[in-house]
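Dear colleague,

Following up on Tuesday's group meeting, I ran the structure prediction for the two-component complex that the binding team flagged. I've pasted the input sequences exactly as they went in, so you can double-check that nothing got truncated or mislabelled along the way. The structure tokens for the whole assembly follow below. Feel free to forward this to whoever is handling the docking comparison.

Inputs:
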Amino acid sequence: MVMNSKSTRNILLVTALAAVSVLSACGGGNDKNNNAGSSTNGGTTGSADKEVTLRLFSNLPDRKSGQGLAEQMVIDNYIKANPNVKIDIETLAEEPFKNKLKAYMASNESLDVTMVHGGAELNTLVQAGYVKELNPAEYEGDTYKFLPGVYKSFTFNDKLYGLPRNSDYEVIYYNKKLFDDNGIKIPTTYAELLEAGKQFRAKGIEPMSMNGKDLWSFAAFFQDLVVRLTGDQNLMLDAVAKKKNFTEDENFLAAAKLLAEARDTKLFQESFMTADYGASQNLFTQGRAAMWYMGSWEAGMATNDKLPEDFRNNVNVLKFPVVEGGKGKDTDLLAWNGGGYSLVSSSKHPEEAKKFFDYMMSADQWAKIVWDTGAAVPAQKYELSGKESELQKQLTEVLTGATSTAGSIALDSGTPKFKDDAQNAFGKFFAGGSTPQQLLADLQKAAETQ
Amino acid sequence: MQKVFNNKMAIFLFVFPGILLFSLTFLVPIVLSAYYSFRDTLSPGTPSAFIGFANYTELLFHDSRFWLALRNAVLLGLGFILIQHPIAIFFAIMLDRLGGKAEKWFRTIFFIPCVISVVVISKMWLSLLDPTFGAFNKMLDSLGLGFLKHAWLGDSSTALISMLFILIWAGFGWGLLFYYAGLKGIPDDLYEAASLDGASGFRLHWRITVPLLSPVITVQITLAMITALKQMETVFLTTNGGPGDSTQFLAVYLYNKAFSASQYGYANAISILFIIVCLLATYLSNKLTRSDATEF
């Protein structure tokens, strides 16, 4: 084949141009996406009649039940009241959500409102300047009715960066039928809990389901033990903040020994170290484990018609048992506020976004809806509707009867690095059988090097 | 056409898209990674300070998890080379001898694990090895070996070995395929000549098959080391490095440091060391297994 160089050059140029245009098409596509929101309102914000599309990023992919449904209802309500606003919602399950939020943070993606996890994870977003500071004074009063002390995990250097959506606290869910059928006493002390564990094990029933793969539940369990021993909600938080020492305070050692007892008497199910959240929940909801150590956000279990009826009728709540000789009461509650929402700094419609955010956080929206649908326990004052499930009533009792609360889970009160290291220390303790002393040394090291 | 290749402009135009893509997806990330590895970044875009080699000294001299992850990778590599490959060669020979329809059938069956998604494989083994309802423990029970029952992936004493087993099982088909293809390239008359000389069975293969397969073996050993080092998906999906740290591998560790612990700079330091280790492993395995090309 012979070609003159001119036509060759032409052909090559065309090919090259084609290649370049393919490459740039990718970039062009992105631009289009990015502009889609702003082009509809031409860059002006706040004007009530202009079409605005807000972007909300959430960790609630299930829009048909539980908290996802509640979130969707709030959005629908807002759109009904503000027909000029569209809300573009992106949802991902917990872990992918966390990762993508970090990617968004890195690229300064212009979301408007995002779900955030208080404590360590929000701290990263704050340091990157990705989320906006809020004025707490604006959220006082009857429109919002936030409970006292709920801003703790959302406050860094005395500045507020988000609002909590739920009150979270650890309880033990138990299957009453399994206790009754096997004639086992519902435990009120830690020794009784371990004893119940032994009896269930003897009968071939898993005593307590634990999401060991996720590791954080161990830290909560440990914090519960520390509080039961000392009655001091701040001791563990102080240790994370390096004001106390894990290895020097004998209460920590006592708590770690109690934790070792749970491990050694096999209180948790056989494969607890490979069980993630879903696996540990399944074991409990299928009636194969008598108890589940988990948070109040699972209030919806009693009304979830996908779960066996037999289970729904028998699920009850137990306060974390007291420790014999400990100074803590069973009304000292490991309660904190984990999940919430923040406004994103790079928002293209800051005013509209704030309007929507404020609407969502007002007491008669998210708080009321999650409570009425039985999806969670809000961080705001709520009125009983009279239609609550038995489980919700019990959970309310636990919260309203609390004589002290933690405000933050110790794991989240440090940096993400501390969280990772501390979780790993618990992992080593439960899987590798390290001693209580080693656990404390590891925790101390994690606190020091965070 | 010759003219085209003499034309510098043409060469440039042909090569440029490739170089561009390679730079954007390969060189730039590595350079950026190196840049971030000298900083205490929480994630790209966050304020950070230059901290010199601090990440590296921490990693090399204080971080036992890094060394553990590296050790596990080496163990896995050895597992591939010493367990998986001999079995793969053995089955490749058997398969080669089988002939006919049966050969095709078994070839397909052996290769099935390789076409199944890693996610499916991970979930499958997670279920099979589950201590309460897993088929593996039930099988032990029915064989009267109930005392061997175990929380295979949940116990730090057996987790690593179970993980190695899953990975060896999952990668077996690839090894087999490579050796099988290599075997097909060995002329039959060599075997005929050898058997006329009185060689048979194991000797025949030890003296003829293995040496003639050596180029394939060399490639396979290098590949095994690389595969072992970059092991990520299965570990991430089954144990995420746990329980404790017993199945920690470099890529999983790196991922967790970057995205769970928000130590982005530190994770980048791991990734740079990771690249160095991979290059070293490739270099060493090439060096150690290099033999003169066999002619036949």
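Chain A touches chain B through 48 residues (CB under 8 Å).

Cheers,
M.
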